[in-house]
Amino acid sequence: MSNSIPKTMTAWRQNAYGGPESLTRAEVPVPQPGEGEVLIKIGATSLNGADIRIMRGDPKLVRLGSGMRGPKEKIRGKDVAGTIVAVGPRVFGRSVGDRVVGELPGGGLAEFVVAYSSKLSTIPSGVDDKIAATLPLAGGTAWQALESVNTDRGASVLIIGAGGGVGTFTVNLATWAGAHVHALCSPRAIETVAALGAERVDDRTATSTESLASDDYDVIVDLGGVVPLRELRRLVRDGGDVVEVAMGGNSVVGPLGRAIGSQAMSTWSKKHLRPLLATKRPGLTKTLLDLVASGEITPHIDREVPLDSADQAIKALDDGEVVGKILVVPGS
């Protein structure tokens, strides 16, 4: 690696599952890029609900992939944007100085991170690292929730839990597509969600879905996972779709039972309940970057927190205090 790259860096590590208190600040070696990898100097890391689930190992089902006794990836932070400062062997089409963004297994709560070059998207000029970092997981999940259902101009869409990272992107993308959006969100998110284009915004703590008319929506995107499936099916029209994104569930298997229930209730029904398992798609991140660059969508950033206080950013997200996205940026 270049002499300008330090040998050690600040990172927030986690050795055992737990709450924000399980993260500790440490000085660790700067990783070296292997075959097909690049080393990124991080410009911004966007935190997501997935970081919280892995941090807590909850539901326990996630531990099959993340580690049974503790997280295999010790550093939280999946969505990272920054500048390539070194390249490993057999990296093609990437150079030192390129600005890139991607959804990684982790490693974002640090000054540097390694990533496979093929999993990254180039950040266009005019889009800064902070905006780019919001896109891969939250923006990508919102896109995948909407891409297989009818959000064409004039469609009626209900978004439940619209104030979080995925929720604000879902509002933004559905209104961009021309849908009429009714959003349910926390009181703190109402103003933001309305500004993103929702035509009707209600406080989900004061508005029961039981008060909503039957057969009134073409699409329902459920980001809360607490409204009974039969109630969601009542609200959607024949031929319509309910997309289950955050599907609740118990502390062991999480959303698995609800997903099975969704599939069962869709059998022989004119109303479709679709559990969503979003996947990493660098090509989709590029599409979202282009929409941001052209001004067609605008991610909402609640706040930026310096790396030295990254545990406070995780705590704010864990406590449900964030509207849209929260970023960790270099500095103290």
From TrEMBL:
Domain of life: Bacteria
GO MF annotation list: oxidoreductase activity
Pfam family of the protein (one): ADH_zinc_N_2
Coiled coil segments of this chain: none
Residues covered by the Enoyl reductase (ER) domain: 18-328
PANTHER family, alphabetized: ZINC-TYPE ALCOHOL DEHYDROGENASE-LIKE PROTEIN C16A3.02C
Record protein name field: Putative quinone-oxidoreductase-like protein, chloroplastic
Organism: Dietzia timorensis
